[in-house]
From TrEMBL:
The keyword Glycoprotein belongs to this UniProt entry's keyword annotation: no
One protein family per Pfam: LysR_substrate
Name under which the protein is recorded: LysR family transcriptional regulator
Domain of life of the native organism: Bacteria
Coiled coil: none
InterPro entries hit by this protein: LysR-type_TF_proteobact-type, LysR_HTH_N, LysR_subst-bd, WH-like_DNA-bd_sf, WH_DNA-bd_sf
Gene source species: Duganella aquatilis
Keywords for the protein's UniProt record, in alphabetical order: DNA-binding, Transcription, Transcription regulation
Molecular functions per Gene Ontology: DNA binding; DNA-binding transcription factor activity
Similarity annotation: Belongs to the LysR transcriptional regulatory family.
Alphabetical list of Gene3D superfamilies matching this protein: 3.40.190.290, Winged helix-like DNA-binding domain superfamily/Winged helix DNA-binding domain
Domain HTH lysR-type: 1-59
């Protein structure tokens, strides 16, 4: 048994949650993956996973081993990447976490050029509206919107995000165009919400900031549903400009009350602090920042 290869398989098993998924990824059969993990468990003298017909459950010993093994593999890959041809030819998988809408509209379109430049690097895009725990979920980098509170992360600023109030021309033709914040009370709003908590809209900057709690028939916690609702003429929404940038350019969406738009919020690429960043991760971060 090659212990490093077995550790790599175990790390991917934790991250994929399936022996068959790891087998497909590595181009080997599921029994071969299971055999390697079993040999690793015998070597360590500890049970790392609980197996059944439906899923894989990581034991407490397995979770502790995963965190150490991932750090060891990252360090090993970084050492390899610093010498020889691998300095110009990074390889391996980079796991990226981002919000669903931002991933589809702003991250995935950039990857064609990256893969041309680094053909031996693969990227797994994991989407979630919630801020994930990078270490616990095996994420290499995450794209975070707004001000950062987690001091355990290293952040590199990618850009700033403008927020706009927008609606479709069809909606405005039917219901009129608001000229003041008070006019919004007479309009249907598309509400971004999690559970029963509606997110307020913010207008103005600095001491002049005003909050407005939107009300409407549609509530959603997904940015792309906000986008679809605007384009379908269901109402007015406040959203990051990137969500509707193409539609604003081609006239499918119209920006409202532009003088009252809120301050820009930072968009950051973050990764765990205090860890050596593997070459495959570093080149992706640098590539995204250059776009």
């Amino acid at each position: 048994m090659d212990r490093l290869d077995a550790m790599r398989l175990f790390v991917r098993l934790v991250e994929c949650g399936s022996f068959s998924a790891v087998g497909r990824e590595e181009g080997i059969g599921q029994p071969a993956v299971s055999k390697q993990i079993a040999a690793l468990e015998r070597h360590l003298g500890a049970q790392l996973v609980l197996r059944n017909s439906r899923n894989v459950v990581i034991t407490e010993a397995g979770q502790a081993f995963y965190e150490s093994a991932k750090q060891l593999i990252d360090d090993f890959d970084a050492v390899e990447s610093s010498v020889g041809d691998r300095q110009q030819s990074p390889r391996g998988l980079v796991r990226v976490s981002t919000a669903p809408g931002h991933g589809r509209l702003c991250v995935t379109p950039l990857l064609a050029g990256f893969f041309q430049r680094y053909p031996q690097v693969s990227v797994e895009v994991s989407v979630s509206e919630r801020p994930v725990d990078l270490l616990a979920e095996g994420i290499d980098i995450a794209i975070r919107h707004g001000r950062l509170l987690d001091s355990t992360l290293t952040a590199r600023k990618w850009s700033d995000t403008d927020f706009v109030l927008a609606a479709s021309p069809a909606y405005l033709a039917a219901h009129g165009t608001p000229a003041t914040l008070d006019d919004l009370d007479r309009h249907t709003c598309i509400v971004f919400a999690r559970g029963r908590e509606r997110y307020p809209w913010r207008f103005g900057t600095g001491a002049e900031t005003t909050s407005y709690l939107p009300r409407g028939a549609l509530l959603t916690g997904d940015a792309e549903h906000v986008r679809a609702a605007v384009l379908c003429g269901l109402g007015i929404a406040q959203a990051p400009r990137w969500l509707l940038a193409e539609e604003i350019r081609n006239g499918q969406a119209q920006v409202l009350l532009p003088a009252l738009q809120p301050e820009r919020l930072p968009l950051n690429i973050v990764y765990a602090a205090g860890r050596r960043v593997p070459m495959r991760v570093r080149v992706l971060i640098d590539y995204l920042l250059a776009q």
